Amino acid sequence: MTISEQQPLGSPFSAASTAEDVLAGTDLSGKTAVVTGGYSGLGLATTHALTAAGARVIVPARRPEVAEAALADVKGAEVVPMDLADLDSVREAAARITASVARLDLLMAVAGVMATPERRVGPGWESQLAANHFGHFTLACELYPLLAGAGGARVVVNSSAGHTLTGFRRHDPHFRTGYDKWLAYGQSKTANILFAVHLDALGREDGVRAFSLHPGKIITGLQREMELQEQIDLGWVDEHGNVVGAGFKSPSQGAATGLWAATSPLLDGHGGLYLEDCEVARVSAPDEAMDDGGVRGYAVDPDAAARLWELSLAATGATPIGR
């Protein structure tokens, strides 16, 4: 992937498209997907859409009892316990999945945390980077043999327009010199994009293609650690928690871009791209507003992606991929 490939492909869908629109007429019978966070918010909408199209969906969940209840009536969905911030848990989940399926057609990294208070996990890692990036990185590496064996698998990573807040802070990725919850979130979302860029570079010869995306603005459980007043001050909701901000999507609309990334024939032969509103995003200028869309050049830079990959391998001890 080169930055010049960040150009629209002429998708028939848009910001208003829903999960149902994107998968209309699509038959996923015989396909197996792993959807992290697939029991709430965008993940639940994704699981509903995939199973309705015939796919088997495995949902790794930090709260398996909550996931079981949310998915009780969803035929074709099953739950595996997993905490993204605990890499031993991630490896155990990957082992359980590997023991239960022969191939994996889709890995959709939908789970995430946002703007959380300062927390340290593992060997003192900043928790948003750990959950949003290191956890998904490790899961993808451990499941890679199943993806490579599918003969055309796709990995879809939910990032955010929040990546425009900062590039990857190699000088201080764990905020040892002072914590900022929004910069920590932005860094983790940049890491999601860089992860997809390099995973695609490593996986394309095995038919494994990777994409990252901004799902849009949606009020879901992602905001659970933000005070109501902060969301009011940002113009997202009113004092009763009702969405009042312009341009917000429903969960089904928010899930649409990820499902388009997972299934669209327009993306055949492509990979490493950042998507938004069911289309390939353009590269945005450094001084553009977050809500103007697009992806920053630093987030899709192949050299930066390769450096982050090596850092992530060293940090997590994940199984290396390929050549």
* Strands ordered across the widest β-sheet: 3-2-1-4-7-8-9-10
CATH top level is Alpha Beta
Helix/strand structural class? alpha/beta
CATH architecture descriptor name: 3-Layer(aba) Sandwich
* Number of strand segments: 12
Order of helices and strands: HEHEHEHEEEHEHEHHEEEEH
Q: Which parts are unreliable, with pLDDT below 50 for 5 consecutive residues or more?
A: none
Per DSSP, what share of the residues sits in E-state strands of 2 or more residues? 5-15%
Supply the number of helical segments: 9
Q: Report the sheet with the most strands, covering strand number, pairing sense and barrel closure.
A: 8 strands, mixed
- Please, how many domains? 1
Question: What do we call the CATH homologous superfamily?
Answer: NAD(P)-binding Rossmann-like Domain
* Overall radius of gyration: 18 Å
Helix content: 25-40%
CATH topology value: Rossmann fold
End-to-end span in angstroms?
A: 18 Å
Average pLDDT value? 93
The 3D shape can be described as: globular
